[in-house]
User: Fold these one by one.
Assistant:
Number 1:
Amino acid sequence: MNDLSLTILSESAGDAHAIERLHERTFGPGRFVLSAYRIREHVDHLLDLSFTARVGTLLVGSVRQLPICVGDTPALLLGPLTVEPPFRSRGVGRLLLERALKDAKAQGHRLVLLVGDEPYYSRVGFKQVAKGRVTMPGPVDYSRLLVTELVEGAFEGVSGPVVPDWSKARI
C-alpha cells in the first residue's frame, strides 16, 4: 500500500454523505442514467456487505453491494467501486473488492454481477456474461456486464432480467 495505513471497514449509515460526495466527484451527474442506478432506485445496498477504505480518518474509497435477482436467482450487484484519484493504483480498489467478495461468500451468497472493465475485475474472478443471457434496465454496454461465482457452478442455467430483489425493496 506504499506506506499508507489503510483500513477497510464495513460501511455505516454515517458514511452515506461522504460516499455520495465521492461518487459525485468520481462519476458526475451522468451516473444516474446508468443501468445499475436504475436498480439502486428501488433497493438499498447492504451495509454489512458494503465497505469503506480509510487512511486515518480520511475516506479514500468505497464499494457497495445490493440484493438483486437474475431471473429467479438471488445474486448481488457490486458497485459502485470508487477510489479517490490520488489513491488509485495503490491496491485500494482490490482490497475493497476482496473484502466485499469474501464477506458475501461467508454470508452464503453465490453470485455477484457488476458492470465494469473486464481487465480490471478479472483479477478477482469476474468474467463477461455471454451476450443475451442477462438483461438490465436502461442503457448498458453488455460487453461490460460481468459475473463471478462465489460457489462453483452457481451461474449454470441462470439467465433473465436483472431486477432488484423485491423482497428487500423500499416500499
Number 2:
Amino acid sequence: MAEIVNLRAAKKARQRAEARAKGDENAAKFGRTKAEKDLEKTRAQKARRDLDGHERE
C-alpha cells in the first residue's frame, strides 16, 4: 500500500525548498561578506581623502 501524503504540506515544502535554492543562488551571485563590504568602504574613504588632499585652495 502507498504512503499517505498531505498534498498541501508537500506543496509548501517544495515551495520552501525552491525559495531556499533561489536565495542560495542569489547569495552566491550577489552576496559579499561583511569583511568585503568593510574593505570596500575603507578603500573608498581613503580614495576620497587622497583626492581631497590634492585640492588646490
Number 3:
Amino acid sequence: MARLHINPFSIFLLIIAAGLYCERVQAQDPVLPLASGQPEAWLVTYGPGELYWQRFGHNAIWIRDPSRNIDHVFNAGFFDFNQPGFLRRFIEGRMLYFSAAQPALDEFRQYQFDNRSIQARPLRLDLVEYERLLNHLVRQVDPEHRHYLYDYYLDNCSTRIRDAIDVALAGQLSSVIAEQVARQNFRDHTRRSTEAVFWYYLGLETALGLPTDRNISRWQEMFLPAVVDEVIAGFEREGRPVAGDLFTIWNSSLEIPPATPPFTAWRYLLAGLLLTGFFSLMGRLAGEVMAQGSINAYLVIAAQGGLLLTYLWTMTDHQVASPNANLLLLNPLLILGLWPRLRRLAALVLLAGVAFCMVQLLLPGGQYNLDVLAFLAPVNLAVGWWLWRNAPDL
C-alpha cells in the first residue's frame, strides 16, 4: 500500500493558508450608516495606508439616492499604469488621473482590505445644492471629462472633492476659506505624512524645492483629505452647518501621522556619519586605490543627482522642484573632481555648498532642507577634505 509523504513545511503553509481563509471568511463587512430613504451625500475620508502613495490619505463623495438607484462612491484618485507614456508622464509631472464611481460597499471593502480607516460625514445640502453636486460628480466620471492632469498639491483627488463641494455651495466655501491662512504649508504636511518611511521621506525632501516652504491659504491646504474633512466639519453658511457628525465605517490598526512634523534630522545625521565612517574604514583597510574609487563613485552619483534636480527644475512641470537649495549639495560640477588637477575646485564646491545651505536655512524665507543637509554634510565634508588633501601641487 502506497504511503502519502507530506513535507512538514507544506503542513505549515497549509495551516497558514487555512488561518488566512478563516480570517477572511469571518471578517465583517464595513458598518454603514442607516439609509434615510432620501437622497444623501456623504464626505468620505480614508486614512493613510502602508504603501508610499497612501501616506497622505484619500477622500471621496458617497451618493445614496434610491430614486435614481445610486449607491456609489465618486472617487477622483484613479490612475492606470498601462496608459500610453505612463513613465514619461510621471517623470515630467504630467500624470493623467481619472474619476470614477463604483458601488459603495465594493469600494469600502477595498480600503478595509488595505487596513485603512473609513469615516463618513453627511453633507447637509438642500435639494438645489444636492442636484448641483450630483450633476458635477456625474460629469466628472463621464468618459469625456474624467481625465485630468494630476498635481500633487494643486489639483489632486482631494482638491477635486473640495471643488465639488464648493460647486454644490455655489462658491460660498472658496469665498470664505481662500481668505484664511493655512495652519501648515505644503512641506510641513509632506514631512509629517511621510516621516515614518525613512528613504521615501529623504527622497521627497531632496526633490522638493522652495515653493513648498511658502505660506499658503487654508483653501490650498485642503489638498489633504483630512484637512477637507476638518474644514467642512466646521463650515457654516447662513448660520447653518454644512456637515453632520462623523460616522466611523471602519477602524484601522495603523498609526495616524503626527499632527506636526517631528524633528528627524538626528536620524539622517546619524545615517550620514555611519555612511562616512563605513567608507572611511573600507578605504583604510583596502588601500588608497579603493579609497579613490569610492570617492570617484560618490562624485559621479552626486553629480548625477544634481543633474536630476536640474532636470526637474528646468525641464518638467514639477513646479515644486524649483528652485531647490539641494543643488548646492548635489552639484553637477562635482564631476570635475574626477580630474586630479581639478580636485581642489570640486572640494571648494562641496565645502561651499554645505556652508551656503547652513546659511540659507537660517535666513527668513529659506528652504527647509535640514534633513538632507544632515545626511549629506558629513559625506560631502569628508570627500571635500580627501580631494583637497590628494590634489596635486600646481
